[in-house]
């Protein structure tokens, strides 16, 4: 195997996608420790990599999607000066495919779904919907260099002050409406919990209305509404210190995987077979029991249910959520 001194990994999608790329950072760090790694992510996601504490990650670059043209040309100029041995394009779209080809790297590896894959040194299939996890798909990009062994995502955030002790986290939000468990389901679940169970509500500032609704409906339970109060790094630390995280198919699920905290993941319109399920050692998935002809209604979530009934969320049992909580308690 020829030594590889410097590589670039490109993943400019959402937060969860960026977190999953830490599995590639781990693979390179462990299997090719002499290699310096550069990473390109969407602007706003870069702070999370302060929790990737290994020096093998030499630099994190950002792509500003609010100013795409200027940011793209700046990156082309700056990355060209780095003389990368290999570039791995995890992103499957034209813009990042073109960038990878314009920076003078010796080799470019990416997925065949990228419209510019014909020009890559080698392209790889991106099987979707058959249960293969995204970290496995991503690892395939490195397989000719380092083999097929898959490593888990990894983050190790500094310990930030936690709002409570012996708490569980609930993250009711998601970028996509049809990935959100209905708020009433969260309320019903909390009403089944022991009265002394501390509950920390988490999310971004634009999800505060969701947590506020839960808090107002759960008077008498020790609720700590931390939604919108913390930067990304501190939020990750709060997840890491919890005894279990209850999440939708969203960024907090992948953060929970990376800090290896027990996770209960609620899947509404999307399905685990898409390959984005939880990866913590103790993970549980809850989804609607009956088969719905309309589920999944797309590869991603939607802004609303196309049929108006949202059965994939409304038919999830809060009793199943309680059983997951009890299993979490029993595993301690």
Structural features, described:
The chain folds into two domains: 6-146, Glycogen Phosphorylase B (Rossmann fold); 167-330, Glycogen Phosphorylase B (Rossmann fold, 3-Layer(aba) Sandwich). The protein is built from twelve helices and twelve strands. The protein has helices spanning 15-20, 22-31, 68-80, 94-101, 134-140, 143-146, 183-192, 208-217, 232-241, 251-258, 311-314, 318-330; strands at residues 6-11, 36-42, 57-63, 86-89, 107-111, 122-124, 167-171, 198-201, 223-225, 244-248, 263-267, 283-287. The strands form two sheets. It has a six-stranded parallel sheet with strand order 3-2-1-4-5-6, sandwiched between helices. It has a six-stranded parallel sheet with strand order 9-8-7-10-11-12, with helices on both faces. Helix 4 links the parallel strand 4 and strand 5. Helix 7 (183-192) runs parallel beside helix 8 (208-217) and helix 7 packs across helix 12 (318-330). It is globular, with a radius of gyration of 20 Å. The mean pLDDT is 96.
């Amino acid at each position: 195997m020829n030594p590889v001194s410097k590589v670039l990994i490109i993943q400019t999608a959402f937060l969860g996608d960026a977190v999953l790329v830490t599995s590639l950072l781990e693979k390179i760090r462990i299997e090719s420790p002499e290699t310096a790694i550069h990473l390109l992510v969407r602007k706003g996601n870069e702070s999370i990599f302060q929790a990737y504490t290994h020096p093998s990650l030499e630099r994190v670059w950002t792509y500003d999607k609010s100013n795409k043209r200027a940011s793209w040309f700046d990156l082309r100029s700056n990355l060209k000066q780095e003389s990368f041995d290999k570039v791995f394009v995890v992103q499957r779209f034209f813009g990042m495919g073109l960038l990878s080809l314009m920076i003078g790297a010796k080799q470019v590896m990416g997925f065949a779904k990228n419209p510019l894959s014909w020009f890559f040194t080698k392209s790889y299939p991106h099987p979707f919907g058959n249960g293969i996890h995204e970290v496995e798909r991503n690892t395939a990009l490195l397989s000719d260099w380092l083999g097929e062994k898959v490593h888990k995502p990894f983050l190790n955030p500094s310990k930030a002050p936690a709002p409570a002790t012996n708490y569980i986290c609930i993250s009711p939000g998601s970028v996509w409406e049809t990935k959100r468990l209905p708020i009433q389901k969260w309320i019903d679940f909390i009403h089944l919990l022991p009265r002394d169970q501390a509950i920390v509500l988490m999310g971004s500032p634009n999800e505060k209305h969701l947590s506020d609704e839960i808090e107002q409906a759960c008077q008498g339970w020790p609720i700590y509404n931390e939604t919108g109060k913390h930067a990304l790094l501190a939020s990750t630390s709060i997840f890491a210190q919890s005894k279990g995280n209850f999440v939708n198919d969203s960024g907090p699920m992948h953060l929970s995987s990376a800090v290896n905290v027990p996770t209960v993941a609620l899947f509404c319109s999307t399905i685990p077979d898409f390959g984005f399920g939880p990866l913590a050692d103790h993970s549980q998935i809850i989804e609607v029991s009956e088969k719905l002809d309309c589920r999944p209604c797309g590869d991603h979530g939607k802004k609303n249910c196309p049929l108006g009934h949202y059965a994939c969320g409304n038919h999830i049992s809060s009793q199943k959520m309680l059983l997951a909580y009890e299993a979490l308690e029993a595993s301690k």
